[in-house]
Specification:
The structure is a single chain. This protein is an alpha/beta fold. The protein folds into 3 domains: 1-104 and 230-303, 3-Layer(bba) Sandwich (FAD/NAD(P)-binding domain); 107-229, FAD/NAD(P)-binding domain (3-Layer(bba) Sandwich); 305-398, no CATH class. It is 19% helix and 34% strand. It has 8 helices and 27 strands. The chain has helices spanning 20-32, 56-61, 108-111, 124-132, 148-160, 177-182, 236-240, 280-298; strands at residues 8-9, 13-16, 43-46, 65-67, 71-77, 80-85, 88-93, 96-99, 103-105, 121-123, 140-145, 164-170, 188-189, 192-200, 203-211, 217-221, 224-227, 231-233, 266-268, 308-312, 316-320, 323-324, 335-340, 347-353, 356-362, 370-374, 388-394. Strands 4-3-2-8-19 form a 5-stranded parallel sheet. Strands 10-17-11-12-13 form a 5-stranded parallel sheet. It has a 5-stranded mixed sheet with strand order 22-20-27-24-25, with no helix packed on it. α1 packs parallel to α8 (280-298) and α4 packs parallel to α5 (148-160). Residues 1-6 have low confidence and may be disordered.
Amino acid sequence: MTGAPGLPLTPDVVVVGAGPAGAAAAAGIAEALPGLPGLPGRVLVLERQPEATGHAARAAAAGAVVRAEATVTGWAGPRALEVTTPQGLLRVDARAVVLATGARERPRAARLIPGDRPAGVCTTGQLRRLVAAGQGVGTHAVVAGTAAAAVWPAVRVLRAAGSRTVLAATTDSAPAGWALRALAGVPTVTRCRISRVIGRGGRLQGVEIENTATGQRRTLACDCLVLTGDWLPENELARAAGLDLTPGGDGTPLADTALRASRPGVFAAGTLLHPGWGSARAAARDGVHLVAPVTAWLAGRAPAATAVPILAHAPLRWVTPALLRPGDPPPPYGGLLAWADRPLRLPRLTVRQDDRILARRTLPPRPGPVVPIPWRALARADREGGPVHLRVTDLTPR
């Protein structure tokens, strides 16, 4: 694979994003390409950050070319990308494209939090960048999010930066036990949200906190507010390609259990598919999972033309992967991932296809929005039948 600014590059596979999912996919595919073990240039990884993450080292060791400061700005064809680099513009024409662009936390403006607009309000991602750049982040912080599990990483970054967390607030009613244990020593409240931001002279002075159950409000002084959780997929490239999106979702690409997107030869992985869920290791599993379907595509083996949609019903909002194809493997996480619009204390799952009930089972309590759906609940699904419907009833006594 060769090329110069303004000229096309022609790898077998281009991976957009060098995070855990993208790096794992690039490494596995580079190692799997038949007859070309460890040959540089057949797999290209594009990373927009100035430096690729540590995960990319394995991809490079396997023979993939990792290019940092390479921002994909659009599509020039079904599997052709327009890329901006410090050296100029590039066009990449690949036989397969893997989108591993990740997710980001919803910013304050999108959360519709009223009040003043002072400096000192950031997301966890912005906080990490500030700390990495050696910039001050305040001395006493409030961390607020949709789940205690999302609050804890921000508290840890603040602690390392020498800032004290005066309050951790979560809208959860029943946070995960491990997250509460991790927050030991940090004042923590549940069923609370930020109802107003208070500033003076362009700097943050405090926040107003509302109990979502009682409506009671109180004011707390702070000079840093970190907004956590509430993740959105980085789906600009998916939208620009006109990829089908998951029904009812937050803009995640529609994918089958082999993680194929709706455009032939285009795949999706990592938190682009499941924003805010799972560890780096879980995202890397997506990348490993992609090796077989991507190499099958490169070998000319097309997937089945038909696919059975999987539909989520309230209180579930959406599910991923959301397509079943004949001959496809189970998804990489041992089942499907569904997002609920509220915590489910005692969820009872019913899976139905056509006039058949495929499974009924009680699931573990889910304090957060993500409800794992075990794969065995779909074992009896007819992959050439009608849509599969997922319904959950919360059996908690009221």
